[in-house]
């Protein structure tokens, strides 16, 4: 049904590139460099199927000023993932949902990691400030040291 996937890449997941803003230059793995025929050959997936995946929103290759599709290494990694799901018998709607959930899960894991780091930093800051600013023992609201209430510590008006 579908050819075997021959492309091998060590690039990171697509969700990382999806988080980059439009003003930043895309990472090397996200830069569209392959035309549809090369992407088809590298992935073993026909050009019409690549167009179908794009219509279904499974893939979003970049475009040149003239409108030509340019596939990136990240797109090819995504195609490999799509091919594996197709081989398992998952339909295109299911694949779209799976990819969406995986992307959302990745975002949540990243956010959770950031929150854990922030929490650890705040705890360390709180512990540090608590150890350097311990209140002196004595009565509450008392201005004299150690809570001693003797005449030597008071000022006469």
Strand content: under 5%
- CATH topology (fold) name of the domain at 29-129: Multidrug-efflux Transporter Regulator, Chain: A, Domain 2
Mean pLDDT level: 80
Shape: elongated
- CATH first level of the domain at 29-129: Mainly Alpha
Would you give an account of this structure?
This is HTH merR-type domain-containing protein. Residues 9-29, 105-157 are annotated as: Disordered. The protein is mainly alpha-helical and 157 residues long. It has a domain at 29-129: Multidrug-efflux Transporter Regulator, Chain: A, Domain 2, CATH 1.10.1660.10. Helix content is 50%, strand content 3%. It has a two-stranded antiparallel sheet. The model is unreliable at 1-22 (pLDDT under 50).
Q: What is shown here, in short?
A:
InterPro entries: DNA-bd_dom_put_sf, MerR-type_HTH_dom, MerR_fam. With 157 residues, the chain is mainly alpha-helical.
Ordered list of secondary-structure elements with their pairings:
Blueprint (H helix, E strand, L loop, with lengths): L13 H5 L17 H8 L3 H9 L6 E2 L5 E2 L2 H15 L4 H41 L25
Antiparallel strand pairs: 1-2
Relevant terms:
5 helices, DNA-bd_dom_put_sf, mainly alpha, 50% helix, 157 residues, Multidrug-efflux Transporter Regulator, Chain: A, Domain 2, disordered N terminus
């Amino acid at each position: 049904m579908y050819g075997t996937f021959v492309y091998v890449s060590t690039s990171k997941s697509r969700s990382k590139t999806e988080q980059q803003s439009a003003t930043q230059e895309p990472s090397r793995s996200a830069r569209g460099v392959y035309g549809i025929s090369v992407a088809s050959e590298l992935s073993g997936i026909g050009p019409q199927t690549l167009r179908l995946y794009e219509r279904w929103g499974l893939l979003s290759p970049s475009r040149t000023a003239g409108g030509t599709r340019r596939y990136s290494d990240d797109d090819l990694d995504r195609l490999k993932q799509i091919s594996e799901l197709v081989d398992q018998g998952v339909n295109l709607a299911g694949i779209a949902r799976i990819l969406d959930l995986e992307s959302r899960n990745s975002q949540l894991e990243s956010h959770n990691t950031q929150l854990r780091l922030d929490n650890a930093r705040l705890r360390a800051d709180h512990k540090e400030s608590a150890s350097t600013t311990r209140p002196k023992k004595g009565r509450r609201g008392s201005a004299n040291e150690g809570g001693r209430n003797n005449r030597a510590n008071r000022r006469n008006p």
